[in-house]
Amino acid sequence: MKEERKEKLIYLVDHKIKWETFKKLQEKLVKDSGPTPEHGDRILWEMLKDKQIYCWFGDDWRDDMGVGLKLPEGYKVKVISSK
Q1: Radius of gyration of the chain from Cα atoms?
Q2: What percent of the chain is modeled with pLDDT above 90?
Q3: Is the whole-model pTM more than 0.90?
Q4: Within 13 Å and on the Cβ side, how many CA atoms surround 78?
Q5: Where are the beta strands (DSSP E) in the chain?
């Protein structure tokens, strides 16, 4: 019997997301354990809004948010927006 392979999935944060929604995602999903830059989440949101970076959540980044110049390869993408 073949094992069913689970598809890898990331949740991409839309660059049009409102600040309030981005902040709630950070508060609920990201667990900081150590020193963090003051207003770091606001800086990330501004960079995301200006399309300088991508931000995403996924099973591979438990309790954290992925940030990068490119999206990781091999993942199905679903978008999180403020609609």
Answers
A1: 14
A2: 59
A3: no
A4: 8
A5: 9-13, 54-58, 66-68, 76-80
